[in-house]
Amino acid sequence: xxxxxxxxxxxxxxxxxxxxxxxxxxxxxxxxxxxxxxxxxxxxxxxxxxxxxxxxxxxxxxxxxxxxxxxxxxxxxxxxxxxxxxxxxxxxxxxxxxxxxxxxxxxxxxxxxxxxxxxxxxxxxxxxxxxxxxxxxxxxxxxxxxxxxxxxxxxxxxxxxxxxxxxxxxxxxxxxxxxxxxxxxxxxxxxxxxxxxxxxxxxxxxxxxxxxxxxxxxxxxxxxxxxxxxxxxxxxxxxxxxxxxxxxxxxxxxxxxxxxxxxxxxxxxxxxxxxxxxxxxxxxxxxxxxxxxxxxxxxxxxxxxxxxxxxxxxxxxxxxxxxxxxxxxxxxxxxxxxxxxxxxxxxxxxxxxxxxxxxxxxxxxxxxxxxxxxxxxxxxxxxxxxxxxxxxxxxxxxxxxxxxxxxxxxxxxxxxxxxxxxxxxxxxxxxxxxxxx
Length: 437
Known about the structure:
- The structure is a single chain.
- By secondary structure, the protein is of the alpha/beta class.
- It has 2 domains: about 15-155 and about 325-390, D-Maltodextrin-Binding Protein, domain 2 (3-Layer(aba) Sandwich); about 160-320 and about 395-435, Periplasmic binding protein-like II (D-Maltodextrin-Binding Protein, domain 2, 3-Layer(aba) Sandwich), CATH 3.40.190.10.
- It has 18 helices and 10 strands.
- A hairpin with a 2-residue loop joins strand 5 (about 230) and strand 6 (about 235).
- Residues about 1-25 have low confidence and may be disordered.
């Protein structure tokens, strides 16, 4: 969950060939079945060591229930994110991979398009809470047109407003803002109270932090196809939609008035900068609270001074849509035991296991997020963000590093005084060209 979205890695030659020949609705493998005929068998499952460190009891409970129901054993092989894509490419191409696996939700599209995963559409309804899966996680496991499901949502992380409660209190802001207008009013007070602090940012929001900028654009626009959407066989852009441009102007007003982050940098160093004491608020993943107060990289004295809220929306009680990152689970098309692999995923993501996981991370369905929020007061903000509208990058294997750069350049130019509609049109042209191959 603490990984940042990266541009999709270069696709292996065989995967490219497969993707180019696939249909717009995805070319995944055989239709899935759920098997309980596992006597004398053992399946292999790849999970990230996040679970080993965070919720091993959930994994063990799922293994036990699976064996009781199927008679098969489970060999969990723990993985790390470093070089995982390379390992996954090799395993999926060779057919020597696991029977079920975890992958980041930003990694899923290229494998779905390449036909690397079993088609779970026919059994989706047999997965608990599949009609309530978190929006962005569900979308990341689907074909580009949303008609088929190849990966199951696992758990998530969301971006929120992280702020120095002591600085807000000292400026006379004793209640967390509930709307963008209230946020502006609060930041105005915090800025005035710290006018003598060199380089002070009431809200540090550098120009190239495109996650934040797109979130504001997604607010009035909605969450379906925030950056681009599939229109038949072609992708069309939404960055120039008047509603999106309107939201971006709100973001630009905030960064101009309250941030000294500049126009040529992004959010990569914001945790370390906040720890130095001259930033009152940032927009970041919930786990960044720990990073700011980390004894090695931040300032532990800030631990009890930091607070979080879901980024306020335009109306009271609403939130600005958050980018939702996280993990999915899938069954490789070349699995030796696809039916058993699918059954393990069904059990591992059932209500019982997800409720237990919710003590540690955002579960995969909106109806279970309340448990996550109740587990720790610090979870409320990220839970609220996940329950609200969330957005995701265009679900295509052709999303590339050039597209992320185009967004950074566009928002940096807008922050520097450029015309929002014109700069977003430049980015849109690049993105649509890339998505359409």
